[in-house]
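Worked example 2:
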Amino acid sequence: METHTQSRPRERLLAAAKDLTYSQGVGVGVDAILKKANVARRSLYEHFGGKDGLIAEVLRMTTDEDEALYRATMQAAGDDPRARLLAIFDWLGEVVKDPDFRGCRYLSVDLALTDPDHPAHAITRQYSENVKALLEAELAKLGHHDPAEAANELMLLIDGTLAAGVTKPSSDPARLARRLAEQVITP
């Protein structure tokens, strides 16, 4: 007897919302999410209290995944802090070339959600702080004279790369950002 394991409604809602909010933005309708997840509206409210709660939970999930990608990228570059920091821009170059790339999920959320009290903003701010802390730690290991400020500059280059990857992909934004990053990380 063959059994089919079907994910539970909560997991299906998360998967559908993760996909649709990235491909279509956080303005995607609840009905589209429910249809893709193949769940009843009641499941959305039972598990997340509504669309805002679902978006917040998707962001919590994706920030963990994306922070792990930054760590893995740096670890794969070895022990040299300079190489580890520049590897991020090499990786971003591959990210923005992906045909399914739609920009930075977190920048998109912050721009689309105009309510400053939306729970998503706290999550995107924390994500940004976590990535900045990774950069700052590497800059400190490198002996940079102002690791905090340099980490802010690298974050600006990362955000710019991800934005330009959508709006000006032919400009090869990751390559340009990497060149600027080399200047920022020089102690």
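Residues 79 and 138 are 10 Å apart (CA to CA). Residues 58-185 form a domain with the Tetracycline Repressor; domain 2 fold (CATH 1.10.357.10).
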